[in-house]
Amino acid sequence: MTPTLVRQQLPHSGAAPRVDQSARARDWAEIQERMLVPLYEAVYERLEVGGGMRLLGLDCGSGLALLMAAARGAAVTGVDSSAPERLALARERLLPAAWGTRARADARLVDGSPADVVVAGAPAYSLVTAFEPIGCVARDSDRLAELLDAAAPLAERGAPVVLVGWGPPERCATSAVLRVATKLADPLRGAGSWRAARRDDLEEVAHRAGLRPDGSGRVACPFGYADVDSAVRGLLSTGFFDPAVDATDEAQVDKELREALHPHLRRDGTVWMPNIFRYLIARTS
Fold first, then answer.
1. How far is Cα of residue 108 from the mean position of the Cα atoms in its chain?
2. What is the pLDDT of residue 97?
3. How far apart are CA 26 and CA 32, in angstroms?
4. Report field, pTM of the whole predicted structure over 0.85
5. Mapping DSSP to helix (H, G, I), strand (E, B) and coil, where does residue 55 land?
6. Which InterPro entries does this chain map to (predicted)?
7. Cα-Cα-Cα-Cα dihedral of 255, 256, 262, 263, to 10°?
8. Is 60 exposed, middle or buried (0-12, 13-18, 19+ CB in 10 A)?
């Protein structure tokens, strides 16, 4: 799906996952994460992110969005409790002092919840971002609402909080490909199920978290890959397909994913899937 196709943590049971999470994290950082760069840029331009801003990134993953904000001069803090392998890559990007080079000023990464980023006496955050898109799976907004509940008190009054969701399925070519995951994982997914994104998904989450909607936008984020192998690696890195791998096996998921990608294969061997993502800017009380 951090990202950020959305990283899905779909309920499942059974044997331990048969997925190399370190390899998945590296594929995410090298292939998939960049797909949402147009979204990050659009949000940062609209909010004029720059020096003097203190940004809190929820589910920051491997930190590309934070890196872009830091390059604009913002002091960034990232928090993530669901993907330690991605967070380790974020540390390589944002805290290079650990490797004998100069660290980026005012960058902090926390493995945990928003409550774990609290520092006594520190000023409040001037911007909160939640770039993980919602709108793929039933109740996928519940965790986002919980994160926002915990993060909103850490921000200044009236500070912008950015939420992101998938656009309408007819505008998101990747939607049909993602359904492969839910179809294969059905035996282990219990009450979880695919559902199309709704127009007011983000507003509903904002209201649940006590935030006031204050503008929105849409951004084209095509998913483009050098070849089918890269597309498969990139999409598998989202975590969305892990329950399907557990329910069947990686070979079966690989086969069906390649079949789903076939309509998006171009003559030069590249894969191209146009998508639209929507963002909402809400304000803290």
1. 19
2. 62
3. 10
4. yes
5. strand
6. SAM-dependent_MTases_sf
7. 180
8. buried
Tens-place pLDDT, residues 99-128? 455 555 589 999 999 999 999 889 999 999
> Which two structure tokens, joined as six digits, stand for 1?
């799906």
Strands of the 212-220 sheet, one edge to the other: 107-111, 75-80, 54-58, 127-134, 160-166, 276-283, 212-220
- Spell out the alpha helix ranges (H) of the chain: 21-27, 37-47, 64-71, 84-94, 142-151, 174-185, 201-208, 228-236, 242-247, 250-261
Residue 226's Cα: distance from chain center in Å? 22
Question: For 158, what's the count of Cα atoms within 13 Å in the CB-facing half-sphere?
Answer: 0
How many angstroms separate the CA atoms of 119 and 123, rounded? 9
Contact 134, 165 (CB under 8 A): yes
What's the residue count for the chain?
285
pLDDT of residue 200: 85
What 8-state DSSP symbol labels residue 227?
Answer: S
CA–CA dist 63, 29 (Å, integer): 9
